[in-house]
Amino acid sequence: MAAYDQSKIRNFCIVAHIDHGKSTLADRIIEKTGLLTSREMQAQVLDNMELERERGITIKAQSVRTVYKARNGEEYIFNLIDTPGHVDFNYEVSRSLAACDGAILVVDAAQGIEAQTLANVYLALDHNLDVFPVINKIDLPSAEPDRVKEEIEDVIGLEAHDAPLISAKNGIGIEEVLEQIVEKIPAPKGNPENPLQALIFDSIYDSYKGVIIFCRIMEGTVKKGTMIRMMATGAKQEVVEVGYFGAGQFIPCEELSAGMVGYITASIKNVKDTAVGDTVTDDRRPCAAPLPGYKKVQSMVYCGMYPADGAKYPDLRDALEKLQLNDASLNYEPETSIALGFGFRCGFLGLLHLEIIQERLEREYNLDLVTTAPGVIYKIYKTNGEVIELTNPSNMPDPSEIEYMEEPIVSAEIMVTSEFIGSIMELCQERRGKYLGMEYIEGSRALLKYELPLNEIIYDFFDALKSRSRGYASFDYDLKGYEQSTLVKLDILINREEVDALSFIVHADSAYERGRKMCEKLKDEIPRHLFEIPIQAAVGGKIIARETVKAMRKDVLAKCYGGDITRKKKLLEKQKEGKKRMRQIGNVEIPQKAFMSVLKLDDRK
Amino acid sequence: MTGNNYKKRPLELYLHIPFCVRKCHYCDFLSGPADASLQEQYMKALLAELSGRSGECREYQVQTVFVGGGTPSVVDAVWMDRIVEEIKRSYDLAEDAEITIEINPGTVDRDKLEIYKRAGINRLSIGLQSAVDEELRRLGRIHTPEQFLRTYQEAAGAGFTNINVDVMSALPGQTPESYRRTLDMLMGLCPRPAHISAYSLIIEEGTPFHDLWEQGKLELPDEDNDRLMYALTGEVLGANGYHRYEISNYALDGYECRHNCGYWQRKEYLGFGIGAASLMKEWRFRNGQDIRKYVDSPLFQREELKQLSLEERMEEFLFLGLRMTKGVSCEAFLKAFGQRITDVYGEVIQRNMRDGLLAFKEGSYHLTDRGMDVSNYVMAQFLLG
Questions:
Q1: Where in chain B is the domain with CATH 1.10.10.920?
Q2: Domain B2-263: what homologous superfamily?
Q3: pLDDT of residue A547
Q4: Contact A560 B227 (CB under 8 A)
């Protein structure tokens, strides 16, 4: 390790729209600065969760430190902080940005600026980061680097004339990027002699070391033996080890001083104690005030998660417990459903977060899950003055006890090419969007601004957006707040019995449409029984839609397979196996997947 | 090899002939066209397997023989003569044994049928499927309704009195009216066929029909018409003196197919030729499907050997026995397994009786008409796993 010299440190991140090549550029930087030979490089070192690689997105913030010998002959320490790449994780992104002094903006030479590009670059500018652009994928036949440079200057107002033209994939132009990191990103400030003030931008749980805090030291110094305190949560522990981030490994060092990025371990048992955005200080010599910007992470989306096999309930609980060790934004509490038995009401940052947790539970913990329709948190103002936050539709009080209700609203920005403006506006209209305005970005593209109820965008909005714009629209949003709304609970009755796990809350105006679609979808999912099964949607006891699953008329193997009894038996076994995967509601058997398939109701695909 | 005094165990033989002129569009049986030389090699192997296995069957008397396919009638009739000869030579063939061969119109003539008859074959199963030319063509059948009529008359002329005709409903383009024409033609035959097998078309994976169906290009009768045709079968055949004795099989009194009934009653049977299945001493096994290997060493192709557990035997007893209209006998169950049927299946029986799918008569449980319609649903409940 080079001697501590603040002027030779560069703390930065890379911001980009999804798929514009952020992680690939990160890989090239690591490779070129000699930390790993290319043989050792696994593609995209920083995205190290299997799921992250598959989905091509970063879920948890990652960090890596490399040493670069610049053309001026000096050695620089680069701390590259890779930020999560999805709107669900906006708060985490903002904390990662706060740990940096500058950012590289990657823009795709063919696609230009997208909604996320803008959102991320504004976020970076909000944090007073110095941002310089690079134009990636210049080797694509459709690349238009000059047009994109112009766009960056016009739309964002960033100087782009000397932006490096690169291909991260093929290693073109990377040297130039490294030089600009040295030139354009400022060295960190802060005094190592001041009281300790460090920003937590992530933490993970390790079964040997306990919680590993990822932090940026703003002021002061931390080393083994320092008694640290998290200023928001109040947790206190003695430091066991400090160090920095190698590629995929933790490398211990003597101390971390102002301007450095690294990790701290202190035998902390729970990531809840080391919340992202909290300030670490020296308990014996604390700093005057915590760093600004701390927010308690709040779940935005809730759903019920149930083991398909009721006997696996304890396994699901253990798995959630383990995932929570690493993910402070995951909430869960036990609940019971008449239809689904014992399970958990789980809270997530957004739908992607939900899907990731669901997939991890299924893959890493080998659990078969039934998930109920995701919903948001509604505020219910009761006539008796009480205010409740509703996360499970089944708990909605009787309408007579409700004064009024509020639902969460987001400010959304949608970037779209002009030919699709009409169909996207129509979509937003259907989703109860409030049109705020539109800006043209160069001739052919527009940025639409809407306010949308969160519950209208959590299930299938993104899919609908993509399908109605042939994949061209991009989307970003921020929670704006709560607004009063006319909401009702839509119940589904199967064979005249209410199925609690299928109830959801919907705006009164959409109730009929949603109820009708739900019934249609369920009609396709529920197999025929010996008797006719009515499927009804009801609001407040009033039936608003109905479909019927006709009675089974024929289920017979007429054909003679000669003496091949094994084949006959396999057929019957398959039938019996199918029944096992069903949930019995009254005398109706409902396939597990029926509970989830009703989530995607947009029929204009 | 006749004349033993002690009572022998009954045995059925199934011989598989995997050849046909051309494969029909719906067919997923193990069969296909082949040249004369491969046919000859195969028939020789089949004779060798028959002779080679006779040692396993000393304590048995053969009650029925069924030569199925494919289309067994495509091979030279001389082979059938040799086969029956071989069975008579190597096995104890009961004097009143039922010996059936499947034939298709367009592959036999009077001479061939007379050779069968002289060889000792006493039952024919003719694949008609439909009496409507257009329907036959859609199925990819090689014959016309007229060819069927000629074959039928030739068979009767050759002295066959026990003849089955296969028909199918729910065919592409078929209507209740056209299906009735098929049934009417059968009922107008003189002499009347002793036995009718009436199947519904099943779209099996790996067939051209399945591909068409997946592409939405196969126009099948809708549910209402399908049910109308199904009802028509029972109606027309019932009015003409046929009784239903199994889900898809109808016969004049005394002409039930003994061989097939053996399957439903879990009698022992030995399969010869590729793909042929067997049940012997509570083991199920089958020959492999590779014709080249079979031709090289017909005695060494057995695979999927499995000894049936008590539970599996009980399951089979139920899901096979319930195919027959007379159902499963409580006494036979007790005798076979040493337990009362109600001790093992009391709950399932009760539930299905309550649902009107199962009924009790003369010491047996049997499927009701409604139960026959949804027999898979009922039978699946009798699996114990």
A1: 309-385
A2: Aldolase class I (3.20.20.70)
A3: 95
A4: no
Model pLDDT for residues B100-156, shown as the tens digit of each residue: 999 999 999 999 999 999 999 999 999 999 999 999 999 999 999 999 999 999 999
Q: What is the pLDDT of residue A359?
A: 87
Three-state DSSP class for B31? Answer: coil
Q: Token digits for A568? A: 């006959």
A43 has a pLDDT exceeding 70: no
Helix pair angle (A461-468, A421-430), 10° resolution: 150
CA angle A592, A596, A597 (to 5 degrees): 105
Q: Give the best-scoring range by mean pLDDT among A80-94, A548-562, B102-116.
A: B102-116
Chain A: give the shortest CA distance to residue B286, in Å. Answer: 9
Three-state secondary structure call for residue B301: coil
Angle at A484 between CA A483 and CA A490, to 5 degrees: 115
Q: How many CA atoms lie within 13 A of A483 on its CB side?
A: 15
Q: Quick check: B75 pLDDT over 50?
A: yes
The C-alpha atoms of residue B66 and residue B54 are separated, in whole angstroms, by 17
Which residues is A197 bridged to in the sheet?
A219
Residues of A whose CB is below 8 A from B31: none
End-to-end CA distance of chain A: 56
CB atoms within 10 A of CB A340: 26
pLDDT (0 to 100) of residue B385 = 75
pTM of structure = 0.69
Where are the domain boundaries for CATH 3.20.20.70 in chain B? 2-263
Q: Please tell me the predicted confidence (pLDDT) of residue B6.
A: 67
> Is residue B21 within 8 Å of B74, Cβ to Cβ?
yes
At A577-589, the pLDDT tens digits run: 887 778 888 889 8
- In whole angstroms, give the CA distance from residue A378 to residue A408: 7
For residue B129, give every residue at least 6 positions away whose Cβ sits within 8 Å of its Cβ, in sequence order, or none. Answer: B135, B136, B139, B141, B166, B167, B168, B171
For strand A387-390 and strand A445-453, is the pairing parallel, antiparallel, or unpaired? Answer: unpaired
The CATH number of the structural domain formed by B309-385 is 1.10.10.920
pLDDT confidence tier of residue A576, bands split at 50, 70 and 90: confident
Q: Which of residues 178-217 of B touch A (CB under 8 A)?
A: 197-200, 202
Partner residues linked to B287 by β-bridges: B302
The reply to whether residue B376 touches residue A576, judged by beta carbons under 8 angstroms, is: no
Q: Are B248 and A579 inside 8 Å of each other by CB?
A: no
Beta-carbon contacts of residue A340 (< 8 Å; ≥ 6 apart): A304, A306, A370, A372, A501, A583, A595
Query: How much of chain A is in helix, strand and coil states, percent to nearest 5?
Result: 30, 35, 35
Mutant choice from B323, B378, B379 vs A, greatest count of A C-beta within 10 A: B379
Backbone region of residue B258 per phi and psi (left: phi > 0; alpha: psi in -120 to 50; beta: other values): alpha
Q: Are the C-beta atoms of residues A99 and A81 closer than 8 Å to each other?
A: yes
Our CA angle for B47, A565, B260, nearest 5°, is 65
Q: Position of tokens 């898979």?
A: B376
Query: Which ranges constitute the DSSP H helices of B74-204?
Result: 77-90, 110-119, 133-139, 145-157, 176-187
